[in-house]
Design goal:
Order of helices and strands: EEEEEEEEEEE
Radius of gyration: 13 Å
Low-confidence stretches: none
Helix content: under 10%
Shape: globular
Largest sheet: 7 strands, mixed
Mean pLDDT: 94
Number of helices: 0
Strand content: over 45%
Distance between the termini: 40 Å
């Protein structure tokens, strides 16, 4: 099982950037799809982005396309979420989660993800 640990959240002004990190305990990220999810106050948790195990093919929530980029560095067993042009509506607790990859394009279906990190707060405010 891949147990993820998030870091990198913080306070940023609108239009700014943050990079979130998801550190993995497994030596081969290729066996896992990694997803980023977020939960804003008073709202349900939603999928933001995921990266497919073997292919590194990404998937994005429509509202973050063109602003967020997910990528991984296998050498340091870490998946990153680069967030640019941040908006106040991006404010949320961001969670990293993992699931065994089936070799197909990853999907942002929360029940499929078995292991979750503790979350990191992202606040976009002037």
């Amino acid at each position: 099982q891949l147990q993820p640990v998030e870091s990198g959240g913080g306070l940023v002004q609108p239009g700014g950037s943050l990079r979130l990190s998801c550190a993995a305990s497994e030596s081969d990220l290729g066996y896992y799809d990694i997803g980023w999810f977020r939960q804003a106050p008073g709202k349900e948790r939603e999928g933001v982005s995921c990266i497919t195990g073997r292919t590194s093919s990404p998937n994005y929530l429509d509202s973050v396309k063109g602003r967020f980029t997910i990528f991984r560095d296998n050498a340091v067993k870490t998946v990153y979420l680069q967030m640019n042009s941040l908006k106040p509506e991006d404010t949320a607790v961001y969670y990293c989660a993992s699931k065994r990859s089936l070799g197909r394009q990853c999907v942002l279906d929360q029940p499929l993800y078995r292991n979750w990190g503790q979350g990191t707060q992202v606040t976009v405010s002037s």
